[in-house]
Amino acid sequence: MKHKLRIKPVTLKYIDQYNALMRYVFQVTDRELQDSGYEDGELLRSKRPVLQEAEVFGWFTPDDELVSQICIYPCEVNIHGKIFSMGGVTGVGTYPEYANMGLMNELITHALEKMRKAKQYISYLYPYSIPYYRRKGWEIMSDHMTFTIKDTQLPERVEVPGFVERLHVTDEEVKSVYDRYARQMHGALIRNKFEWDEYWRWENEDERTAAVYYDAKKQPQGCMFYWVEDDIFHIKEMFYMNQEARHGLWNFIGAHFSMIDAVNGDNYLNEPMAFELKDSQIVETIEPYFMARIVDVAEFLKAYPWNDDIRPFHFVVEDPSAEWNNGIFGLRYDENDEPEVVAEPIGKPVTLDIQTLSTMLMSYKSPTYLYKTERLKTDAKTLRLLEKIIPAEKPYFSDYF
After folding, report:
1. DSSP 323
2. Smallest Cα–Cα separation from 6: which of 70, 92, 84, 65?
3. 279-282 long-range CB contacts below 8 Å, 24 or more apart?
4. Phi and psi for 78 in degrees, rounded to 5?
5. DSSP structure string for 135-155
6. Closest CA to 79 of 388, 273, 307, 249
7. What does the pLDDT look like over 360-376, one tens digit per residue?
8. What sign does the dihedral 228-266-122-21 (CA atoms) show?
9. Could you tell me which residues are beta bridge partners of residue 314?
10. For a pLDDT cut of 70, what percent of the chain falls above it?
11. Is-contact 122 294, C-beta < 8 A?
12. 379, 367 in Cβ contact below 8 A?
């Protein structure tokens, strides 16, 4: 059957088929759409910008029926203070009667080639199966934590010079605070209109409120998306430029003491928050969230913001889906004192697969941890060098696509 199929772009002409395949694979019900604020047919219209702005490819039958697809969102992310073009992979799905034919394998390789050509040297995705995407070269790069705080465990009020104002979640002040925050947080997505639309895709933003903290100079320094329901204060996301703004936002939450029994929230900082509370005996959960993979090792290594001076060494990389990433990548400085990547084994080797290289350079796991768990092989001196030149800050990623 496979030899009759062909790969081609999924254009607006196929929006109905795209929508049908998405809803089938991800089991999206009419009730879920209504809970997210969609009316009949609105989801179909909301997906139109995806087919206009993203690259979508699929396998088609001779009758022009879409049976398997993959979507690449053109995004930008902050990697240790440097903005990179990123290919966000989503909408991955195949009808069951066409499974186990290798269709998705070829679509993923096709997508990686497209991302490489577009200079998207890093890719993120939300995995429906972590083992599956690990086999394709992606690895965990961030966590999603949740917490529950009883009303009696709320932080004590801290006097701050500013104030909190409630705004609509789409207010420009809200977006400006997040943009400043994302540009200082490693791993974060830079949100333009398309990204903000996706951020609220599966939530009813009209039922959410933004609390913005302003400092004494009336400059917005922090924001929180929240709602109150059934005596619970729910936090979707909280981001702030400094501790003053953090205190101000928690003061605002505390002002709801008489209305609530508990606070339930999401945390994407990759650090438990219990330590920051006077009463730290709270309930916190953690689960893997997004995965990342380097699309083009040579180009990514050239652009990577190394933390310190590089002593010559080389990576020996294995990649199951992108043949151009298999081989030797030596690092040294050129005559202009800029990092240079060469295809020769200079210095000592660091042997690892693309998954391990990706999670290490995203700083989700340290070189020493990966060495101890036998995910990479090298000598002690080169391991210390890796610890020195790779920034330690863990990724922050709170979006979903």
Report:
1. G
2. 65
3. 279/152, 279/153, 281/153, 282/147, 282/148, 282/149, 282/150, 282/153
4. -95, 115
5. HTT-EE--EEEEEEEEGGGSP
6. 307
7. 999 999 999 999 999 99
8. negative
9. 330, 349
10. 95
11. yes
12. no
Calpha distance 32→40 (Å, rounded): 12
In degrees, rounded to 5, the angle at the alpha carbon of residue 232 between the alpha carbons of residues 228 and 234 is 60
Query: For residue 127, is pLDDT > 70?
Result: yes
Per-residue confidence at 25, pLDDT binned at 50, 70, 90?
confident
- Mean pLDDT of the region 190-197: 94
Rounded Cα distance between 61 and 95, Å, is 12
For residue 109, give both structure tokens. Answer: 């390789």
Question: What's the full length of the chain, in residues?
Answer: 401
Distance CA 73, CA 83 (A): 16
Quick one: pLDDT at residue 377? 98
What does the pLDDT look like over 263-300, one tens digit per residue? 999 999 988 999 989 999 999 999 999 999 999 999 99
CA 351 to CA 329: how far, in whole Å? 10
Indicate if the pLDDT at residue 38 is higher than 90.
no
Q: Where are the alpha helices (DSSP H) in 27-166?
A: 30-35, 42-46, 48-53, 103-117, 130-135
Mean pLDDT over each residue of the chain, to the nearest integer: 93
Nearest to 116 by CA among 141, 87, 155: 87
The CA radius of gyration of the chain, in Å to the nearest whole number, is: 23
Let me know the angle formed at the C-alpha of 187 by 108 and 58, rounded to the nearest 5 degrees.
20
Chain-centre distance for alpha carbon 200: 15
What is the rounded distance in angstroms from the CA atom of residue 64 to the CA atom of residue 66?
A: 6
Dump pLDDT digits (tens) for 165-189. Answer: 999 999 999 999 999 999 999 999 9
Residue 36 DSSP SS3: coil
Q: Order across the sheet with 122-125: list the strands.
A: 6-9, 55-60, 66-79, 82-94, 122-125, 291-294, 139-140
